[in-house]
Recover the amino acids of this structure.
């Protein structure tokens, strides 16, 4: 566990350093207005772009996925559109979409799985 804790702490320190560096750079650069997004356009059910994006995604599975998306895309595309439009309209994401299963993977298949540094 110490191995993972040290990795997480290293990442946090790097993020803090980058944030500090960016803050200094931002303070020294001329002030430019930041673009704002006032609203989103909803996704059209006839738009084939979403289908294209989904079909080009890497096929992966997750214990939280109730159904394989690509195999049943024609049946559920209208539901996906509705979820995206509801999220854009309300400005929120369903809580169930914020849950993830994290499964450490060995860096090499020949590595000793008992050593945490091999993950």
């Amino acid at each position: 566990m110490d191995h993972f804790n040290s990795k997480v702490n290293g990442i946090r320190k790097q993020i803090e350093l980058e944030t500090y560096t960016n803050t200094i750079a931002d303070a020294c650069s001329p002030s430019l207005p930041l673009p704002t997004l006032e609203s989103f356009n909803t996704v059209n059910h006839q738009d084939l772009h979403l289908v294209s994006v989904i079909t080009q995604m890497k096929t992966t599975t997750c214990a939280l996925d109730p159904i394989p998306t690509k195999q049943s895309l024609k049946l559920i595309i209208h539901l996906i559109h509705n979820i995206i439009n509801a999220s854009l309209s309300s400005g929120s994401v369903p809580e169930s979409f914020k849950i993830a299963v994290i499964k450490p993977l060995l860096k090499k298949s020949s590595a000793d799985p008992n050593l945490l540094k091999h993950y």
In short: Residues 2-28 form the longest helix (27 residues). The mean pLDDT is 76. The helical segments are 2-28, 49-56, 73-90.
